[in-house]
Amino acid sequence: MRASGLLLALLLSGCSTVSYYSHVLHGGWEVLQAREPIADILADPNADANLKTRLQGVQAARRFAVTALALPDNASYTEYSELHRPFVVWNVFAAPELSLTPVTHCFVVAGCVAYQGFYDVARAKAEAARLEGLGNETFVGGVSAYSTLGWFDDPVLSSMLLWDDERLAATLFHELAHQVAYVPDETAFNESYGKFVELEGLRQWRLARGLPAELPPDLAFEAVFIERMLQARTELAALYARPVTDDLKRSGKAEVFARLKADIDRLATEAQAGPGYQRFFATPMNNAKLLPFGLYHQWRPAFAVLFQQQGQDWPRFHAAVKALAKLDAAQRLQQLQALQAQADAPSP
Questions:
Q1: What single string gives the DSSP state of each residue in 164-179?
Q2: Sign of CA dihedral 24, 298, 318, 67
Q3: What pTM was estimated for this model as a whole?
Q4: Confidence class of residue 276 from pLDDT cuts 50, 70 and 90?
Q5: Are 140 and 124 a contacting pair, CB within 8 Å?
Q6: Residue 300 and which of 36, 165, 175, 222 are 20 to 30 A apart at CA?
């Protein structure tokens, strides 16, 4: 975000909004100030050898993003920022007890989104407590990477290096996609597009290195995990829409979450998945914990159909997505629904 836009927002906003913008401006500036060119690190004989190896992998994935996926060729992810913490921001999601409609937050440039990000975990937890006091359910999730939508040259963050090389490359593809097309106020559109580019880009990146196109085991289990989360969302949406008492909705909700946990445990055992997924269930399930899954995956099948329609040609695909982004909201929704219907149609 441009500083001028933020300053205007500060002048026109209430005190609580001023405090939040000040926090975001300060936190974002700290991340940008910590940037160091990757080329300088690689040329430094005293730099950590493992860090150099990881950053060389980043450079290779970055070149592939430009040459093979037609993603922006700019200075993003050509620098590195050491954060000294496991996440760059913590996102707060909130939804009512008997609804999957997210509490939204509106900002300069980014528009209205279904979460609020904080550079400090204590502030994130305080906001979650405030939203709970208003009767909402909340979820605080750590985020290892984000995009400034091309307003600044996004660096590779030390939090991103906690992943393996596959997930790191996939995230670069996802975040660069946000620089191609972004629609204010439409989180599901933006994140579903980014997720499609992430996964298809990773598939092609693996093929380019002589690896099987199939996702590695951890990401394959993640795909199954997400599919089951989306199924739970569908079940709950149908339940909340039923003309029954709130008590019946609450009991039905508890049953959905109990089945979800049992199914995930079974699937994790079958896939020999690591214990990481268990952290998600370490706190009670609620509506807010399901929100990120719907936002990041709602329209991914529609984008897959669009990619096929464009002959799997990345420049044509990105151009088609940008054309969708320019439509008014009603027209865009209509076209996404038509694409999604084709994805859901049985094969002939």
A1: -HHHHHHHHHHHHHHH
A2: positive
A3: 0.81
A4: confident
A5: yes
A6: 165
